[in-house]
Amino acid sequence: MEPLEKKSPDDVKRIVEAVLFAVQEPISARKLSDIVGDTDTREIQEVIRQLREEYDAHDRVFQIEEIANGFQLLSRPEYHEWISKIRKKSSESKLSQQALETLSIIAYKQPIIRADIEAIRGVQSGQMIRTLIERGLVKITGRDEVLGRPLLYGTTTKFLNHFGLKSTKDLPKVEDLEMP
């Protein structure tokens, strides 16, 4: 197929599907549009809607999920048990209880300063915050206007991707969480 040639709707659908199959991270409709060429984001979103319907109609084991302002082809949750058997579980990819606590506070209270995180946790959290920044789950979002202008922290797109969220609005409601 010539690059300048107008692509048929089926060609566009195949290209989008191939790209979604190949990427390791969510990809935006705008980026897909740029890759396909001669399309706009509305057309890409329509193609994604059609692909989702086809996958559901044919009971495919994968689906297109919208995550972190992008789209990604993922296996359906009901196959997690089998897929997890082939994935290597490294201790590096796991977060400690302390890191999860710190990350949760940041996710729900962002933007937040370190002193407020420590007040909630009741312990020093500087090292946990540094670890979360190194892993790309947390970032510095600015400085607070209070005395000393402490750093403000918030979550990243990688955080959304890691937890399969479109935005932080998709976090469970605090009142719905079961406390031990």
From TrEMBL:
Keywords: Cell cycle, Cell division, Chromosome partition, Cytoplasm. The keyword Protease does not apply. It comes from the Bacteria. GO terms for biological process: cell division; chromosome separation. Pfam families: SMC_ScpB. This is Transcriptional regulator containing the HTH domain. The lineage of its organism: Bacteria, Pseudomonadati, Planctomycetota, Candidatus Brocadiia, Candidatus Brocadiales.
